[in-house]
Write a structure and sequence with these properties.
Layout: E1 8-10, E2 13-18, E3 21-27, H1 33-47, H2 62-76, H3 79-96
Antiparallel strand pairs: 1-2, 2-3
Helix pairs in contact: 2-3
C-alpha cells in the first residue's frame, strides 16, 4: 500500500514525495511551514485524479468501465488488440440494446 504524502524538512528544504514525484516547497529558513504546506496542498490538488463518473445510485456505469478498459488496451496492448476488443464490446452493447450502456454494473448473468 502506498504511503501517505507528508511534508518534511530535508536538507534545509520543505520536501515531499507525492504522486510518485519529489517536490520541494522552498527553503526552511525563508518559508514558514504554513506557506510551504499551502504550496504543497495546491500541488496535491493538481495531481489528484478527478472523481469517477458513477450512476444515480453510486455504481460504476458500464460505458465508463468499457471506455477505461479500451483506453488501457490501447495503451498497453496496441492498436490491433484495441480494434478487436472494441468490436467485441460494441457487439455486446448492440445485442443488449442502447440502454445497456447506461445500466449499472451488477453481478449476475443475463
Amino acid at each position: 500500500m502506498a504511503r501517505q504524502p507528508r511534508l518534511k524538512d530535508k536538507s534545509g528544504y520543505w520536501y515531499s514525495e507525492s504522486g510518485g514525484k519529489a517536490m520541494q516547497s522552498g527553503r526552511v529558513g525563508l518559508f514558514p511551514h504554513a506557506e510551504a504546506e499551502a504550496r504543497w496542498r495546491e500541488y496535491l490538488g493538481s495531481i489528484t485524479r478527478p472523481a469517477e463518473p458513477v450512476g444515480p445510485h453510486g455504481e460504476v456505469i458500464v460505458t465508463q468501465l468499457a471506455f477505461d478498459f479500451l483506453k488501457w488496451v490501447g495503451e498497453k496492448r496496441g492498436d490491433t488488440a484495441h480494434y478487436h476488443r472494441n468490436l467485441h464490446i460494441g457487439g455486446v452493447v448492440a445485442r443488449r440494446g442502447r440502454s445497456a450502456g447506461r445500466s449499472p454494473l451488477v453481478a449476475g448473468h443475463s
